[in-house]
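Q: What residues go here?
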């Protein structure tokens, strides 16, 4: 290679510099055209931010609403399930009351051999919420007692009093399951 080939031609170099600077000017003009006015872009960004924030708040509100609905649904279902269990067990206990009555009648007629079975059944049911209504000597309460017989009162009594219980009454978890059949004095 010769020296002439290695030295750059000044005319070529100058035209290359002009072309490069022209490219830079064109690129800068394109960038300026592509970037909108900064005030407009900031306002547009703020408007987009407010829109996105409003949408986020709406989605958050909806999510909280649905979460509350789900919690209320769970509570309602749990209460309904508990009520159903109480109702079903109440029916079962109500079905066992004639068995308790039979044990009571047997003991009243002198059959002491059934007393341990009667006591075990009564204790098991009492643990679950059955309460026997104690009536003998108590003031008559039409909410708890069913009067099936009447006898005259003594002069010293203030109001009607249960003189004899003919069939025991029971409550189940505080609610009357069966009224006691009683003889009322007064």
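A:
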């Amino acid at each position: 290679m010769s020296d002439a080939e290695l030295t750059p031609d000044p005319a070529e170099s100058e035209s290359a510099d002009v072309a490069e600077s022209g490219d830079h000017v064109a690129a800068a003009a394109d960038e300026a055209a592509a970037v909108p006015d900064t005030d407009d872009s900031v306002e547009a960004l703020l408007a987009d931010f407010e829109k996105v924030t409003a949408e986020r708040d709406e989605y958050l509100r909806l999510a909280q609403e649905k979460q509350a609905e789900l919690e209320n649904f769970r509570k309602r279902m749990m209460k309904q399930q508990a009520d159903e269990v109480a109702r079903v067990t109440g029916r079962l206990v109500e079905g066992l009351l004639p068995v308790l009555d039979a044990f009571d009648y047997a003991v009243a007629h002198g059959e002491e051999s059934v007393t341990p079975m009667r006591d075990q059944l009564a204790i098991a049911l009492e643990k679950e919420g059955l309460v026997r209504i104690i009536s003998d000597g108590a003031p008559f309460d039409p909410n708890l007692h069913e009067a099936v017989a009447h006898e005259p009162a003594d002069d010293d009594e203030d109001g009607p009093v249960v003189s004899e219980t003919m069939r025991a009454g029971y409550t189940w978890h505080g609610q009357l399951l069966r009224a006691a059949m009683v003889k009322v004095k007064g």
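A: Context that may help when evaluating the design: The chain is about 60% helix and 15% strand. Helices lie at 3-6, 10-34, 38-108, 115-128.
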